[in-house]
Each structure stands twice: as structure tokens, then as C-alpha cells.
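Please check this.
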Amino acid sequence: MAELLTRVVCDGVIAPGYAPGTIATLSTKKNGQFLIIEADEAYVPPPPEAREVYGLRLTQQRDHTPIPTVLADTIGRAAVHPEAAQDLLLGITVLRYTQSNSVCYLRAGTTLGIGAGQQSRVDCTRLAGAKADTWWLRRHPALRNLTFHPGIRRQDRINWQIRFIEGDLTPNENARLTNALSTPAPELTGEMRAQWLQNMKEVAFVSDGALPFRDNIDHAHRHGVRYIAEPGGSIRSTEVEEACREHQITLIRTGLRLFHH
């Protein structure tokens, strides 16, 4: 983990303990200004959780629901593939700590895209779906064949890959990208993008609150979603179920709302 953190953009780490040699590895990051904090593993937060907003104090009970034990049977009864079940549990855990409204896409143990804090849940679905598409397109051979000069940093390479995928580079960006590459960028047409995205399948989708309209299902289907987990309880739940049947999506009703404001 320490070796991974030295290669990614982050400013600090908090953990209940560190193996010998970990601190020495992390101390080289950010010219020795990388923040390393040891947490008290035995600490138990108080039951109430509070926020101050312009003099108004908001208090609620902290979420203590044991996600794996509560949901394992629910997901299991839906005859979901074991890997997909793990993705759904991961998604529920991710959304527990994500600003509501929120949804996320997952595949093969990886969170592909998160849409959070939007006023409309379908906006979350579309935003997270665009991120999932970008994740998949970064694996296209055209992106794999982008050959950068050795001096280009890892994060800069990722940023250029994303801008290349987005395809709306300004003339200045085009010139800078050309200078960053040791060989000319390969072609990535709209048709090539569409064909590649059709191969993104078996994606899991999780929502922290009930899906209010079928448009969330329609948009999720465009991004290869095969499994959906959501609390249920919407007045249009029947329409949501029908949309899942149309798109051959397995729907799991968890009964667990995970709003985090």
C-alpha cells in the first residue's frame, strides 16, 4: 500500500498501524511533507452525529448498520454471480460515505464512477456513467498506444488520456499533447469509441436511495449495467422493475437507505 501511495496523488494517510519500513517509504513523498497519522484502533465514535450550518445544529444517529451481514442474504436470493455480489456490497459501502444523492458503477472489484451531491438522481446516474465510460475507454488499444516521453509524470499521463478520450482538445492542448508524446497519437473515432463501449458488460450499479424514475435504469443500461441494488420504496417502483425486465437487469431491493448529508 505504501508503494502504491508513492505513485498516486494524495496528501496523507490515516491508519491504525504501520508495518516496519512503511514510514520510511512514505517519507520520501511530497519532499517529506506527506502527512502520516496513526489512528486509535479502539476508538468508538459517539452514537449521535452533528453538523453546524450557519448557527443551526443538525443531529442524527450515526449509521451503524452492518452492511455485509444485513445484505448478503438479500443479494444471494437474487441468484447474482458471486463476483457481482461482491461488487454490489462494495458499492453499498462506498455510498455509505459518499455525499447524497449518490450512485456508483462497479466492475470486477473496482469502483468505475461515482455521481454524488446532485439534486437529481438521474444526473448522478449520467455523471457516474460518463466516468465509467472513461475508465473503460482508457483500456482501448488507441489509449494503450499513447507513447509519452519518459519525463512525463504519471498523473499528467492520466490527465492527457482523459482529455484525449473527451476529444474536445483546444489548439493549445493539441500542441502540448503532441509535445508530450514521443510518437503521434493514434486515431480514436466516434465509431471506434462506440464499438469499444459495447464490450463493457457485467457492470453493477448501486443507489443510496430509491430510484424514483425508470430513466435511471435506461441510462444505466447504456453503460453495461447487469445488476442494480437500490433500497426500493418509490411510488414508481413498478416502472423501475419493468425497465429492469426490459433491459434484462437483475434488480435487488435492499431496503437500506444510506443518505449522507
